[in-house]
Design goal:
40% helix; 21% strand; single chain; alpha/beta
Length: 290
């Protein structure tokens, strides 16, 4: 992700919408289009022809199945692009066996500033409709990823965010996500809530956690930020996903921004189901920055 200058309003000049044409992708499409219209961005709509789906056996590829997938993908993107107005749209059908890697590679090639994708939880919140693709894209993308879950409603146009919850594990890597959340707040005049969740384990191992957490959150806010907004620092207690979702509901947030280390936050939380639960049950989009 490019360096954020807090003196300049953040814009996403190149947005990539990754779609599988499922219902959740329709809401993600609306957000991608709305953000592209707001920033006068170029919008690339991309889909993956997953070659593993054409394998009836381990060594035989069904050519008819592959051609059907190619045709439906091309037609799906064509119809999608024809329904979009007010922005420059490009289309990309990608073929391969690793959808997440293919999408991330395409985002790198197109120099995307933002990836937008929709997710739908399966039983137990263990996977998304895109399989493990959504999780892998989030963990490996070179730019922020806006995830639109099944409980997110269609946005109002033009799309801009008015109440942003930024949640962090207070790692040094989370600072760039704080900058992005605050810059988005500047762009739309939003109220920004900076949040850290103190888990039971953290509370038992460190004294005076709340005061330390508030001080760490305040340290993320440059003095110049107070010229355009009044950010609020909040400490919650309990399970991270539940506490973040409860705060977002309480303040009626229309965006959650997550900033954390890949090695600790994402690996640990994806394994325990916390991050999938948050992404799959949030009532607003979730912007992840690693």
């Amino acid at each position: 992700m490019k360096t954020i200058d807090l003196q300049t309003q953040v814009t996403f000049e190149r947005i990539m919408l990754a779609t599988d044409f499922f219902p959740a992708a329709k809401i993600a499409q609306a957000y991608a289009v709305g953000l592209a219209q707001h920033d006068s961005s170029t919008l690339e709509v991309a889909t993956v022809v997953d070659l593993s789906l054409t394998l009836p056996s381990m060594d035989v590829i069904s050519e008819s199945a592959l051609e059907a997938l190619r045709y439906s993908s091309e037609e799906g993107l064509r119809r999608l692009a024809e329904g979009i107005s007010g922005v420059r749209v490009t289309r990309k059908v990608i073929e391969g066996f690793l959808p997440a890697s293919l999408l991330v590679d395409e985002a790198v090639k197109s120099n995307a500033d933002l990836i937008v994708l929709g997710t739908t939880s399966k039983h137990g919140l263990k996977k998304f409709v895109l399989g493990s693709t959504a999780e892998e894209v989030i963990r490996t993308a070179p730019c922020p990823v806006l995830t639109v879950g099944p409980h997110v409603s269609l946005p109002n146009f033009p799309v801009f965010f008015q109440r942003i919850v930024y949640a962090t594990d207070l790692s040094s890597q989370g600072a760039k996500a704080a900058d992005l959340a605050l810059s988005l707040g500047q762009t739309s005049g939003a109220k920004v809530y900076l949040c850290h969740v103190i888990t039971e384990n953290e509370a038992s191992n460190h004294g005076d956690c709340e005061a330390r957490s508030i001080a760490s959150l305040k340290a993320l806010i440059p003095e110049s930020v107070h010229d355009w907004c009044d950010p609020e620092c909040i400490v919650e207690h309990g399970k991270s996903s539940e506490a973040i979702l409860a705060l977002a509901k309480r303040v009626n947030a229309d965006l959650i921004v997550l900033g954390a280390r890949k090695s600790s936050f994402w690996v640990e939380y994806i394994r325990t189901g916390l991050t999938p639960a948050l992404l799959a049950t949030a009532n607003c989009p979730v912007l992840t920055v690693c």
